[in-house]
């Protein structure tokens, strides 16, 4: 491993105006608390309600843990920098951010793929649901999602931070991410991580294709149902997951397009907005999607707060 002489990085500042820095701190604090509260409520509702101890909600519980982790990786440091008017992050802290972000996002993508498989089995092969998605099988799938995400993160982090940095230490982002670190590296070693990124992108595309194929089969099965009420009820069970997948995929595609553009078209402000969309928005919005579109979650939350069941608007 080649050791870099860089001991710290300079993250991108949103603004030099003190009042706007405090405004950004308040905005990030509100988003962070909303994400923590929303995901924690869903996690608690699932854990405390025995009716939700099913494969679908087991995977949803894992998803909330990943969302809590991803927001906790980026926002606290961004809030501290805005509050204390600083830009620095240590070399080890930057490496830790990259490790956890790649780990959590990779695990979330694998988990969303597993949840699509769960919907497919539940709707298209209901008679085999118990045998294919038993307790042990679900635990192995969740462990595989977490494990593959961690292995992918270790490979990317080790490769990225073994590169010598020749272009200073200023990161044009409010958190550390691989594309920004690579822009600081020497051009002759850029391809070393580039091939690994292409491999990860291929796996991501394969998972996305699997999700699309699963939902094509789900839609066909739903349309063949004779009862309109049955079609609506069956489709509504998968709608929250489909919404979360759409949000996740759209933000990932936006980020990919932004980072693959030529360096001559580099716009720090655009990259800042894109990173905010894919790193901050999904973990904060996912709990809202599941709590609004899922009757079981809403019922569990009403029970958690001791509210009467006739309060349907909650």
UniProtKB/TrEMBL annotation:
<dbReference type="InterPro" id="IPR050516">
    <property type="entry name" value="Olfactory_GPCR"/>
</dbReference>
<keyword id="KW-1003">Cell membrane</keyword>
<keyword id="KW-0675">Receptor</keyword>
<feature type="transmembrane region" description="Helical">
    <location>
        <begin position="20"/>
        <end position="44"/>
    </location>
</feature>
<dbReference type="InterPro" id="IPR000276">
    <property type="entry name" value="GPCR_Rhodpsn"/>
</dbReference>
<keyword id="KW-0716">Sensory transduction</keyword>
<comment type="function">
    <text>Odorant receptor.</text>
</comment>
<dbReference type="GO" id="GO:0005886">
    <property type="term" value="C:plasma membrane"/>
</dbReference>
<feature type="transmembrane region" description="Helical">
    <location>
        <begin position="272"/>
        <end position="292"/>
    </location>
</feature>
<protein>
    <recommendedName>
        <fullName>G-protein coupled receptors family 1 profile domain-containing protein</fullName>
    </recommendedName>
</protein>
<keyword id="KW-0297">G-protein coupled receptor</keyword>
<dbReference type="Pfam" id="PF13853">
    <property type="entry name" value="7tm_4"/>
</dbReference>
<feature type="transmembrane region" description="Helical">
    <location>
        <begin position="56"/>
        <end position="75"/>
    </location>
</feature>
<feature type="transmembrane region" description="Helical">
    <location>
        <begin position="239"/>
        <end position="260"/>
    </location>
</feature>
<dbReference type="GO" id="GO:0004984">
    <property type="term" value="F:olfactory receptor activity"/>
</dbReference>
<keyword id="KW-1133">Transmembrane helix</keyword>
<keyword id="KW-0472">Membrane</keyword>
<dbReference type="InterPro" id="IPR017452">
    <property type="entry name" value="GPCR_Rhodpsn_7TM"/>
</dbReference>
<feature type="transmembrane region" description="Helical">
    <location>
        <begin position="195"/>
        <end position="218"/>
    </location>
</feature>
<dbReference type="InterPro" id="IPR000725">
    <property type="entry name" value="Olfact_rcpt"/>
</dbReference>
<keyword id="KW-0552">Olfaction</keyword>
<feature type="domain" description="G-protein coupled receptors family 1 profile">
    <location>
        <begin position="38"/>
        <end position="290"/>
    </location>
</feature>
<dbReference type="GO" id="GO:0004930">
    <property type="term" value="F:G protein-coupled receptor activity"/>
</dbReference>
<feature type="transmembrane region" description="Helical">
    <location>
        <begin position="137"/>
        <end position="155"/>
    </location>
</feature>
<keyword id="KW-0807">Transducer</keyword>
<feature type="transmembrane region" description="Helical">
    <location>
        <begin position="95"/>
        <end position="117"/>
    </location>
</feature>
<keyword id="KW-0812">Transmembrane</keyword>
